[in-house]
Design goal:
Layout: H1 3-16, E1 21-24, H2 29-42, E2 46-53, H3 58-71, E3 74-80, H4 86-89, H5 95-114, E4 118-120, H6 134-140, H7 146-149, H8 154-163, H9 189-204, E5 210-215, E6 218-223, H10 228-231, H11 234-246, E7 251-254
Parallel strand pairs: 1-2, 1-4, 2-3, 6-7
Antiparallel strand pairs: 5-6
Helix pairs in contact: 1-2, 2-8, 5-6
């Protein structure tokens, strides 16, 4: 048995040891693989719950609904008004803790109402390498992270997802739209919508992995390094300038370091 097979076997054993579960299901790579594996292990004792919120791109909910139908998993869509929380809107460094504490407290209530014994979420082993204050909320609420427990990294999950025929195996990584706004800058619906529309447009040009980091009237675009020649083609560059200018950005920049997760955390603890 190779290393990946051992990790998968450990994951299956973790899941089989649980009586019934709610899976916090975003529709992304990690939570999709977790949901599929949990469904295989526990059958109908699995419920998927997806948050419908201003801070999440609309396509994520559509993808989540489509996949739960395909897997035959009961699906609950939970409306979450993140911007109704003044502490979150202020965008402190621990905003992910505030958000996850609120969201998973709601999931705990659903679990109690449905007689479900455990709540699962899709953090993977790679996530330990970034600043993730939301992990504290998971620990406080006894939310389990089986992919992390099995030491599965993102590359493992993509490989196993492809083997299982999951359409998410090569889906670009996604994160809440609020993660594009610098800490301390107020999170508003207008900013979130502008970021979402900007990223949707860039993807329509053939760019798959995209982030538009929002600095008031300045946009810092992150794409994969291999995609930089495309974005710099005169015709494409002009289209981007025209579209993002209409959306309210006065300065439109390309980050020469390219796409990377957690780039907004770069200066944490400095100054």
């Amino acid at each position: 048995m190779n290393s990946l097979e051992k990790k998968l076997d450990k994951l299956k054993n973790i899941l089989k040891g649980l009586d019934s579960v709610i899976v916090a299901f975003s529709g992304g790579v990690d939570s999709a693989f977790l949901l599929k594996t949990a469904r295989d292990a526990l059958g109908e004792r699995v419920i998927a719950v997806t948050a419908d919120s201003e801070i999440h791109p609309a396509f994520e909910l559509k993808d989540a609904k489509k996949l739960t139908r395909k897997l035959g998993v009961k699906h609950i869509v939970l409306t979450v008004k993140a911007l109704s929380n003044p502490a979150f809107v202020k965008n402190p460094k621990n905003k992910c803790y505030i958000c996850k504490k609120y969201l998973f407290s709601k999931l705990k209530k659903i679990a109690k109402e449905k007689g479900i014994h455990h709540i699962l979420e899709g953090s993977n082993y790679d996530d330990l390498g970034d600043f993730r204050p939301g992990m504290k909320a998971l620990l406080e609420l006894d939310v389990k992270s089986p992919l992390l427990q099995a030491k599965l990294i993102k590359a493992d999950i993509r490989k196993l997802s492809k083997k299982e025929g999951l359409p998410t195996w090569n889906k670009p990584s996604c994160a809440c739209l609020a993660s594009r706004i610098p800490y301390g800058a107020e999170i508003t619906l207008a900013k979130l919508k502008r970021i979402e529309k900007s990223e949707e447009f860039l993807k329509s040009l053939g760019l798959k992995q995209v982030r538009v980091r929002n600095y008031d009237n300045l946009a810092r675009i992150e794409v994969l390094k291999k995609d930089m020649p495309l974005i710099l083609k005169e015709k494409i560059r002009t289209k981007i300038i025209e579209k993002l200018s209409k959306l309210g950005y006065h300065y439109i920049t390309l980050d020469l370091e390219g796409y990377r997760t957690g780039s907004m955390n770069k200066n944490l603890g400095k100054g």
